[in-house]
Amino acid sequence: SKKQAEKAVHQKKEQSKTKCRKARRRHINLVAEFNHRQRKNIWLETHIWHAKRFHMVKKWGYCLGNSPTEKSYRACYRAMTKHCLLQDLSYYCCLELKGKENELLKQLARICSTDTGLTFQESCYLSGRFEGSLNLYRADRYPEDMLGPVTFIWKPRNGSENRQLWIWVHPALKQDILRELKAIFQCSEPEDICITEPVTTSIQEEKQVEVVMSLGNKRKKEDKEGEKAVPVKKIIGDGTRDPFQPYSWIARTTGIAISDRSMEILRYRLIGPLSHSVLTGTLKAASVQTV
């Protein structure tokens, strides 16, 4: 049995050496491998940068950088106090509400309280100029049954009574808060246009990898059509929801719609005195076009 085990290890080593590094690092092979590796824990868009520099942990359905591999605490502190430090908060979940402003405010008032501070209906938040934060509770249960803290921002008014609100929640709280929002707005029916496409099954994935492997053996430099012909699996959904389930619901009586926009909107936090100058140097304002 010992000889058989050694033989199996030797065969695995031989198989791993069948491809040169250039072939293993070919884009189409990397995409298939990366998709395979994040079937259980979704990667953020900055994952590879963090994976090279941080100890990674698997939490809340994501793969996140936990602590740096080098002693960079002083550098981070220096960046926060004198320069700019960026954090990737894209693992926070975004819940989008659409509908008439008075209908939204009427039901949202049931899950928060003015006793705790400013709420969704404050004019400075309704204008869309500022982001707000508050604690949510189960409907009509304040001060008991707290769901957890959230941040929110309204899309600026465009003259219509229909508004759009984004609520950002921690992935550990997402399911409870989403369930409560669906209950108070009576959004039980999935929107037909927003039902997600199911992720390819493991059998289909194996077939795809086989196609990739066969194409990866030998390919002429001028053959660019091969890469385009191979279907690349797209990970749909995030670590907090089943990709086979719908991600948008509507209330037929009021027209209020709730959508789960997790991993569709990236979120970064900039800390430090130079944060504003970094943003102004990076972003360019779009020209406003009126039709």
UniProtKB/TrEMBL annotation:
<dbReference type="InterPro" id="IPR039182">
    <property type="entry name" value="Pop1"/>
</dbReference>
<protein>
    <submittedName>
        <fullName>POP1 protein</fullName>
    </submittedName>
</protein>
<dbReference type="GO" id="GO:0005655">
    <property type="term" value="C:nucleolar ribonuclease P complex"/>
</dbReference>
<dbReference type="GO" id="GO:0000172">
    <property type="term" value="C:ribonuclease MRP complex"/>
</dbReference>
<dbReference type="InterPro" id="IPR009723">
    <property type="entry name" value="Pop1_N"/>
</dbReference>
<dbReference type="Pfam" id="PF06978">
    <property type="entry name" value="POP1_N"/>
</dbReference>
<feature type="domain" description="Pop1 N-terminal">
    <location>
        <begin position="4"/>
        <end position="99"/>
    </location>
</feature>
<dbReference type="GO" id="GO:0001682">
    <property type="term" value="P:tRNA 5'-leader removal"/>
</dbReference>
